[in-house]
Amino acid sequence: MKTFDELFAELQERARTRPEGSSTVAALDAGVHAQGKKVIEEAGEVWIAAEHESDEQLAEEISQLLYRLQVVMIGRGLTLEDVYRYL
Ligand SMILES: N=c1c2ncn([C@@H]3O[C@H](COP(=O)(O)OP(=O)(O)OP(=O)(O)O)[C@@H](O)[C@H]3O)c2ncn1[C@@H]1O[C@H](COP(=O)(O)O)[C@@H](O)[C@H]1O
């Protein structure tokens, strides 16, 4: 189990060290257009799960959306503070 902040730190580390086989490195290398499409795809899956699926399936889809948002943030060089200041 990890928090949003812990995942973000982990992904920043992946971006910095670029380990072999990292799905985050692949997602970053795919570029912002592909990253944005993944955000839209996962957002749609969250919507569908919220209407039609179990709490567990919904929670999993939300986790994937959070991951995809973090990839966009890291790709653009944003920090958590950049976003949190608007919360
Ligand atoms: N939380 C996630 C996470 N959520 C989603 N995904 C990616 O999203 C994919 C699932 O999304 P889809 O439903 O779109 O599945 P898919 O279409 O079959 O996937 P693709 O073919 O598009 O990659 C997974 O295969 C992962 O590539 C994630 N990849 C990594 N993490 C976490 O990120 C951290 C770093 O991971 P690595 O960069 O892989 O080391 C680790 O803690 C991981 O648990």
TrEMBL record:
<dbReference type="InterPro" id="IPR021130">
    <property type="entry name" value="PRib-ATP_PPHydrolase-like"/>
</dbReference>
<keyword id="KW-0067">ATP-binding</keyword>
<keyword id="KW-0963">Cytoplasm</keyword>
<comment type="similarity">
    <text>Belongs to the PRA-PH family.</text>
</comment>
<comment type="pathway">
    <text>Amino-acid biosynthesis; L-histidine biosynthesis; L-histidine from 5-phospho-alpha-D-ribose 1-diphosphate: step 2/9.</text>
</comment>
<keyword id="KW-0547">Nucleotide-binding</keyword>
<keyword id="KW-0028">Amino-acid biosynthesis</keyword>
<keyword id="KW-0368">Histidine biosynthesis</keyword>
<dbReference type="Pfam" id="PF01503">
    <property type="entry name" value="PRA-PH"/>
</dbReference>
<keyword id="KW-0378">Hydrolase</keyword>
<protein>
    <recommendedName>
        <fullName>Phosphoribosyl-ATP pyrophosphatase</fullName>
        <ecNumber>3.6.1.31</ecNumber>
    </recommendedName>
</protein>
<dbReference type="InterPro" id="IPR008179">
    <property type="entry name" value="HisE"/>
</dbReference>
